[in-house]
Specification:
Order of helices and strands: HHEHEEHEHEEHEEEEHEHEHEEHEEEH
Radius of gyration: 29 Å
Shape: globular
Number of helices: 11
Low-confidence stretches: 1-25
Strand content: 15-25%
Mean pLDDT: 86
Length: 358
């Protein structure tokens, strides 16, 4: 108790004793004194708490990795079931910048509802950005929270990290390669979840629903056993670059890639950013090149897997891709993704872009 508070207490005690010795105590006066004393004690004990910052809610990244795996696999089951159905109710969202049709199906929308709300119910305060969005009022009462425990995660990741909830952005793609999905080119289709920590792609999950393959990784912590087994050792197999590119504008990128890496370069068109990134990780190709705008939910999960495997994904100018803002969801700088020799490919692309900007 401070000096002033001692004086108040001493004075109050003396007053009460004097009053008791001479006259009957005034009950109202005594009540006032007790109230004042109580206020002094409260101010002393709690007066400084108003100036303290409230601690932010914390999130377990280990739990979030488990939930991301569960959400991607749940979405994948729906994607599979809708594709097996007679009618996917395909519609068009419009045209891409390159003029290609951008379809959406029941698979996209139903997978979105399951993935988005299972994660939202497991982590209510986390900011989640999805390629799709709700169309009107939807009933998600039957969607259970994503499981925050995964046996494989627990066996590989032995510790955990707790981070402030406002440092996290979750990017989900409920159905990557929708065009190929409508064409029944199932091998290209994936569902993806990415957890970005302060803008850095930290946790990634890519699930192939038609082969029941799930790759996950946590940068600095570890990757799934299935993914680890599929990663080639020793770098590229020969000196002829093999580049994987989008099917929607393969011709343009083929010329671009051969101009950068030589006429012998083998250019492989494929659908889905998730599929193409996995092709790099699994050693089927040396690099994934995308020369135009691409949305961040398409590449965040693959970026995180490459980060976990000490690979690289950058813009064609060599810049890291920032995933910290939901408003800034377009990556307009193109993509170069490699598991090995990123520094060998990047200067050739940069030199070409200086001569012939895209």
């Amino acid at each position: 108790m401070g000096g002033d508070e001692k004086l108040v207490w001493a004075a109050s005690k003396a007053d009460i004793m004097n009053l008791g010795a001479t006259i009957r105590v005034n009950k109202l006066g005594l009540g006032t004194i007790i109230t004042v004393l109580a206020m002094i004690v409260m101010l002393y004990r709690y007066g400084n708490t108003a100036t303290l910052e409230r601690k932010p809610a914390m999130v377990s990244l280990k739990s979030m990795l488990s939930a991301a795996i569960d959400a991607a696999q749940r979405g994948g089951r729906i994607v599979y079931q809708v594709r097996e159905a007679a009618d996917m109710h395909e519609k068009s969202k419009g045209k891409t910048k390159e003029g290609a049709n951008e379809p959406v199906t029941d698979g996209d929308l139903k997978s979105h509802l399951t993935m988005f709300y299972s994660l939202k119910k497991a982590f209510p305060g986390v900011d989640i950005i999805s390629e799709e969005h709700d169309t009107g009022s939807v009933d998600v009462s039957s969607v259970m929270p994503a499981s925050t425990f995964n046996m494989e995660v627990s066996s590989i990741i032995t510790d955990d990290i707790l981070v402030p909830i406002h440092d996290i952005r979750v990017w989900i793609d409920p159905l990557d390669a929708t065009q190929e999905y409508t064409e029944n080119l199932r091998e290209y289709v994936t569902t993806m979840v990415c957890v970005a920590l302060r803008g850095y792609a930290t946790i990634g999950v890519i699930h192939k629903p038609f082969s029941n393959f799930t790759a996950w990784g946590w940068a600095g912590k570890g990757v799934s056993s299935e993914l680890q087994m599929s990663v080639p050792q020793g770098g590229p197999k020969d000196d002829i670059p093999q580049i994987i590119v989008s099917r929607s504008h393969a011709g343009d990128v083929e010329g671009f890639s051969k101009a950068a890496f030589g006429e012998r370069t083998k250019v492989i068109p494929a659908g889905g950013a998730g599929y193409k990134t996995l092709a790099v990780i699994q050693g089927d190709v040396d690099a994934y090149v995308h020369v135009t705008l691409i949305k961040k939910w398409d590449i965040c999960a693959g970026n995180a897997l490459l980060n976990a495997l000490h690979g690289n994904m950058t813009t064609l100018d060599g810049l890291s891709i920032d995933y910290s803002s939901r408003e800034d969801y377009k990556n307009e700088g193109g993509v170069l993704a490699t598991l090995y020799l990123h520094k060998n490919y990047l200067p050739k692309l940069q030199e070409l872009r200086k001569k012939k900007p895209h």
